[in-house]
Amino acid sequence: MEAFDPMNRLFLTGGTGFVGGRFIDRYHRRFGITALVRGDSLSGKRVRIATGDLLDADSLLSATTGCDAVLHIGGATPNRAYAAGSFNATTVGTRNLIAAARAHGIRRFIFVSSLCVLFPGKGPYARSKTEAEEAVMRSDLEWTILRPDTIVGHGAKDLGRTLRLWKSARYIPIIGDGAYTSQPIHVDEVCAALASALETSASVGLAISLAGKDLVPFNEFARRFCRALGNNRRRFVHIPKWFVYPLAGIASFVHPQWGLNPERVNIITEPHTVDLSLMRAVLRIEPMPFEEAVRLTVNQWLRGKTASSEPPEHRTAILP
Ligand SMILES: NC(=O)c1ccc[n+]([C@@H]2O[C@H](COP(=O)([O-])OP(=O)(O)OC[C@H]3O[C@@H](n4cnc5c(N)ncnc54)[C@H](OP(=O)(O)O)[C@@H]3O)[C@@H](O)[C@H]2O)c1
């Protein structure tokens, strides 16, 4: 089994999104990238554009022509999982992409899933990722699945909305007691993990969790972001989860773009720790402390630059 040669052509989905856009910015010189787009929103980036849709099998067949590996980042996120077609973008879309890869003899297939496939009580988003993972694992491709925890960084749509509120609000709502933990990871380290997975044949056949170094209770998550944003006058108002649930249900229908829905409430409030052993041993990545991830995110956000114009600021620690 060969490691991915940077001279080969990489087919990338999700290039117009938060993670895929950042991957292009950081790695367009290292890999020859062909990016799947539905519109023309990637114009100006130094990648080859292939127009198509994950739900259109024929478009994928022509878009993947001449490629040697697939990096499948695109699909629904929890805020979109309630909108029509989002579930299928991940399930049917992944199956279509596997079929296109097989048709062209493309062997290497990296799929970005989510850590929430490991959580109990799955909603539509987690179910769509689980179904897509099963299709990837059943395929005869040389696959790697990556499961990120919450990703922070400039350009994250939901986090951006949250930071706008946290920068100036006097009272900040927190769901429940805020003691539930996660291990947020910076987007640059997710991108480094994707590049490493591509280049390391040892990652084939593995599902690898991606997370930050520190276990962070949500109260601490909010406190550190508020402090970095200069909002020292804020007060946290704890709202019982049973009260937020019905509101989230209504919001998901009335204003799906707010990104509030019952599954998202569950994902945010699911306390968990993440096993980083494969991330370290196979991908050779040592994640940065949470404080550093907050600093990078807020600095870039306050400067108000678009993700595409940012120079890479963080050198991911690669283990020897
Ligand atoms: N952000 C997080 O905290 C987080 C955590 C864990 C896992 N993940 C996973 O990481 C991946 C990237 O997340 P993200 O935050 O970058 O998401 P994002 O900003 O919402 O981007 C989603 C991307 O998927 C594309 N897409 C959606 N449906 C499509 C379709 N039918 N055909 C073609 N492209 C389609 C979108 O294209 P358009 O621009 O055309 O809509 C966009 O480029 C996702 O798979 C997500 O589930 C994210």
Q: Could you characterize what this model shows?
A:
This protein is of the alpha/beta class. Helices cover 40% and strands 18% of the residues. The strands form five sheets. The chain has a seven-stranded parallel β-sheet with strand order 3-2-1-4-5-6-11, with helices on both faces. Strands 7-10 form a two-stranded parallel ribbon. It has a two-stranded parallel sheet with strand order 8-13. Bound molecules: NADP nicotinamide-adenine-dinucleotide phosphate (NAP). NADP nicotinamide-adenine-dinucleotide phosphate is lined by residues 13-14, 16-20, 36, 38, 53-55, 73-75, 77, 89, 93, 112, 114, 148, 150-151, 156-157.
CATH architecture designation: 3-Layer(aba) Sandwich
Secondary-structure element series: EHEEHEHEHEEHEEEHEEHEHHHEHE
Oligomerization state: single chain
Number of helices: 11
Strand order of the largest sheet: 3-2-1-4-5-6-11
Bound molecules: NADP nicotinamide-adenine-dinucleotide phosphate
Structural class: alpha/beta
Strand content: 15-25%
The residue-averaged pLDDT reads: 91
Strands, count:
15
- By CATH, the topology is Rossmann fold
Largest sheet: 7 strands, parallel
Q: How many structural domains can be distinguished in the coordinates?
A: 1
> Low-confidence parts lasting 5 or more residues at pLDDT below 50?
306-313
Q: For the terminal residues, how far apart are their CA atoms? A: 22 Å
- Percent range for helical residues? 25-40%
Compute the gyration radius: what is it? 19 Å
Domain NAD(P)-binding: 14-151
InterPro entries: ComplexI_NDUFA9_subunit, NAD(P)-bd_dom, NAD(P)-bd_dom_sf
Pfam families: NAD_binding_10
GO molecular function: protein-containing complex binding
